[in-house]
Amino acid sequence: MRFVHGTPTRPAAAGFLLAPLLGGCAGPLSALDPAGPGAAAIALLWWGMLVGAALILLGVLLLLAHALRPRAAPRRVSERLMLGGAGVLFPLVTLTVLLVFALRTGEALLPHRSAGDRPLVVEARGQQWWWEFVYPDFAGAPLYTAGTLHIPAGRPVDVHLSSRDVIHGFWVPRLAGKLDAIPGHRTVLRLQADQAGTYAGACAEFCGLEHTRMTFTIVAHDPADFAERLTALAAPPPAAEPEVAAAFAAGCGACHSTDARTRSGAGPNLAGIGRRLPGDLPALLARHPVPRPGHRMPDHAVPDAAMLARIAAYLEELR
Amino acid sequence: MTVLEPAPGLDGELDALWRTPHGRRGWLSAVNHTNLGRRFIVTACVFFGIGGLLAMLIRIQLATPANAFLNAGLYNQIFTLHGTVMMFLFAIPLFEGMAVYLLPKILGARDLAFPRLTAYGYWCYLFGGSLVVGSLAFGVAPDAGWFMYTPLSSRPYSPGINADIWLIGITFVEVSAVSAAVEIVVSVLKVRTGGMPLSRMPLLAWYLLVTAAMMLVGFPPLILGSILLEIERAFGWPFFDPTRGGDPLLWQHLFWLFGHPEVYIIFLPAAGAVSTMIPVFARRPILGYDWIVVSIVALAFLSFGLWVHHMFAVGIPHLALGFFSAASMLVAIPTAVQIFAWIGTLLAGRPVLRLPMLFVCGFFFIFVAGGLTGVMLAVVPFDWQAHDTHFVVAHLHYVLIGGFLFPMMGAAYYWLPHLTGRMPVYNLGTVSFWLLFVGFNLTFLPMHLTGLLGMPRRVYSYAPDLGWDWLNLLSSVASFVMAMGFALFLADILLQRRFGERAPADPWQAGTLEWAMPTPPPSYNFASQPDLSHPSPSEALASEIAAGRHFLGFARNGWRETLAVEAASGRPDQVLLLPGPTLLPLWMGLATALFFVPALFGLYPLTLLGAVLVIGLTLAWLWSMGSRDDPPTVPVGRGLSIVAAPADRRSPLHWGLAAALVADGSLFAALGFGQAFLHLVAPNVPADDPVPIGAAAILAAAGLAAAAGAAAGSRVSQARLGIAAAGSALAMAGMLLLPLPAPTEHAQAAAANALAAFVALHAGMASIAALYSLARLRAGYVSAVRDLALRNTALLAAYAAGTGILALALIHLLPLAVR
After folding, report:
1. Given an 8 Å threshold on Cβ–Cβ distance, is B242 in contact with A184?
2. Which has the minimum average pLDDT: B90-99, B423-432, B601-610?
3. Which of A276, B48, B189, B781 makes a 20 to 30 Å CA pair with A307?
4. Which residues of chain B are within 8 Å of residue A176 when distances are taken between CB atoms?
5. What's the Cα-to-Cα distance from A74 to each of B343, B361, B470, B775, rounded to whole Å?
6. Do A176 and A125 reside in the same domain of the chain?
7. Is the Cβ pair A98, B283 closer than 8 Å?
8. B580 and B560 in contact (C-beta within 8 Å)?
9. Distance, in angstroms, between A89 CA and closest chain B CA?
10. What is the domain range of residue B703?
């Protein structure tokens, strides 16, 4: 439990010792650049196992090299020492120690409810090829977003995973391990970010044509900012000019909601998209008539370029 | 240098009996294990080349970020096919080829127990494999990943024919794997030379025996899963569909129940090759023979208890994960025992570093490293990070290439002089080794880091700012170095065949049986089968064998003769008379193709026709064996006379049926597991009320009991066979008439219907067997000492009754118990 809820001394100390190695391990999706207690505990486990495995490999190879040295006469080798000792006893002891350590670490990473840690509960629903996030109870009503999950820093978050179609894998390597979202099942992943920041997520389980692009982002906020951010999302979206609203409703509106308080149709909720994809929207909409292969965007009358630009400008306002 | 010269005239006489005729018809009708073994090996290598080309396409695509070389759809087909080809069309068939070629030679026999079955297995492999690979040419190759997770592979998310090609094509190939497994198990147990007890068999035979036994138990869950998924796709029985009470995790359990043992099925034969080569090059017997045998058997058992470690990230309770984690680590122990037995043998001997040993050294480094990352992945929390990333890709290539390919290439250099009769062109093999070793490690070592830096498996592209660029580029460049190594290996083999020096007898001074024959081997292997009950120095033994001074050193009656033994003691108990070249296996393979291929297109009447043809050909095949006369006792040399081709419980056919029923029983157990899983574990809304036990169930049970009772015992009677046939037919009718809910409504209903269909099918088979035996009896093939047909009918009827009663309990009582 200490790695998760106690002081971060041990991981920090280990991090200090391994600092030169860790330099090459940074990256937005790096499990070796942990930013939360779950990922930190696993990274520590990894470094320990790496050192142990390297020593064992070295030992075996040295023994092999020794065995291959030319010699004049055969040598006596104790079967009991070689097979009973090195073959049975050594792995048995090593693995028992490792197993105990692994089970303790694993147990600490699970979403147990213990006294004092009130985790935030959110839902992540996977579907080909995006994630819908639901805050089941924000100020008395659910809140829906897509693509970005906002969480408070420093507080455990239990992500309840489900899927609308095939199996997806929810993975934010810098915060925690991964867990599958399986249709017909509900699984719960505990994660936590130590600091405010942006953390990349990917779909780990192969889920079809656009598996590669099924990415998402977790934004961890300081607690005060978190409440502010959700409150902003929960506010009604700004009103569009009437023609823009009509054009939007005729096409996009069939699937996409712009209001985080209502559940979107078949497509991702666009609430907050202006903040999520700043500057990208005109180009995205210009390509809209030819959606990426595999995307299930239905055919519908596409407005002219000028109107697309105006819709893009409107979406930019959804922050 | 000894040259092994057979006694004058003996070679010609034996070769006339055993050789495969020349020409196209001869090629198509071959049943000789040396021919078929070579054929399996060459075909597997062709598929390896195809799988390798696919791998190169993958590495080109991933060499640079945002590469537009392949699109997502094509990439998915390519990586799915790469895994499928390497697993099912290369690794397993290469092992089968090795076993088919070597097994009789290391056991001192002249062929395997069922030569025509070997040929049939080859045709199934060739046809099924071509179907799977050929689909790429039409752009409809499977594209849901080589483990075909549902619901991605089910109809709504894979509407095309791609998934059907995987399910049907691979099942077709698995027919070949199960045939080979039956063949190998029975051959090791029964078809050895005289005086070789189980406890003194060559270690390789132990490895092959255990591997084949694992295949008998391990492959059926996958075959069952594939059948169920194909039925779901074609007829809407929702075994895996969560919207109708099914569960995608059931597929994962069935798949990995196969998939994990599969890893050891691939590793063990290669380990057998290592255990064969190391004592030869260490110049001393292996250290700890008994330890190794126990380790192999322990490995086989353990490997069936850790499939869930492929499912650590699906949300299974942590306690259960702890169990599977412990089991996964435990499997390291029998592996470690073998590693240290090998090193200990080298330590105790006076090793010489010849070319095959170079590959064995490469194996040690790569396989131990892969084993260690395997232990890491067995650590549940670490797996939560590493699962489904390139770390796993790196790990599995370390264990499969390190644990299978490197030892097999060493084995290739070791046994090529046997196949070709020529010695390798040494330096080329060394260069090939270093290209492979360096290329492999530079490809896959960085890939561990790529995975930990967050690169998931099966992504066709990646953004440039994730820190994966140089790692992927390194892997791609190095993979081409590895490809050059393979090309050089191929060139070396061709050069060796063409220009290699003639191999001396026993070129490595191995002193083992397979080298106690001329190379390339004659069609009959041994001019006489070695009598091992009085061990004599190998040099003398080889020339005695060649001179025909051991068992069966003569040709008579136009018989293809080989000894069979009591399984444990190795005392000869009969002479087997093996069949000669025939087109029957080819026709059977084509009929099997007629069963499988039309199902791809929904042409089920043709499928039915295929099934009828398969049954008819099976009966014709069986009918061709046996005799109307009681078996004679014949001299076999060395003062020994034993019975020839007894048609009773000693016959390998009896053992063969028992082995086939073990595989069938594993399939039934997997189906029962599915039924129990859907009632006990799957998070579904249960189906309607349990089906009450009615008249049909009672009829079925009574019919099964009557059939089993009537067929049991050894008394020869037409009436008893008649009752067995009628009872089984009644049971079949009863199972088909069970008042079960429609299978499309709910997964539990689908499972109940599948169980009923299973029992109906087996009751039908028992009925046909009883009728067949009745006909054999009337035609004079059966007597009190020729009761094989009756015994096999009894075994089948008892099996049908046993599984039938269990199935009825699973259908009627399990739902009641769950309530």
Report:
1. yes
2. B423-432
3. A276
4. 384
5. 14, 20, 48, 65
6. yes
7. no
8. yes
9. 9
10. 652-818
